[in-house]
């Protein structure tokens, strides 16, 4: 493994943060579209922890933002083991937006893969 300078690490962290910001919403909508039942934040975060390594705290602002934009529906229900939980489902608008985002993602992924696959000088 190449030993990176502090300056390089700063750029890597910045890039990772920007990339995560752009993909978390896409991943959350996809998870909720595939879910067979409404999910609450902790359930979603556990799915992400197991597959993508996202931090639990990072998803709540995105869930809130997606809800405010009408891409998710939410309903608060009592919990047997603590405070009430907010359960999320993807809305009809969310499904339409997800379809478009996936198309954009695939297009950009193809472009990036193509460019990264070319020899560099």
TrEMBL record:
Pfam families: PadR. It comes from the Bacteria. Residues 28-100 form the Transcription regulator PadR N-terminal domain. SUPFAM superfamilies: Winged helix' DNA-binding domain. This is PadR family transcriptional regulator. It comes from Thalassotalea nanhaiensis. The lineage of its organism: Bacteria, Pseudomonadati, Pseudomonadota, Gammaproteobacteria, Alteromonadales.
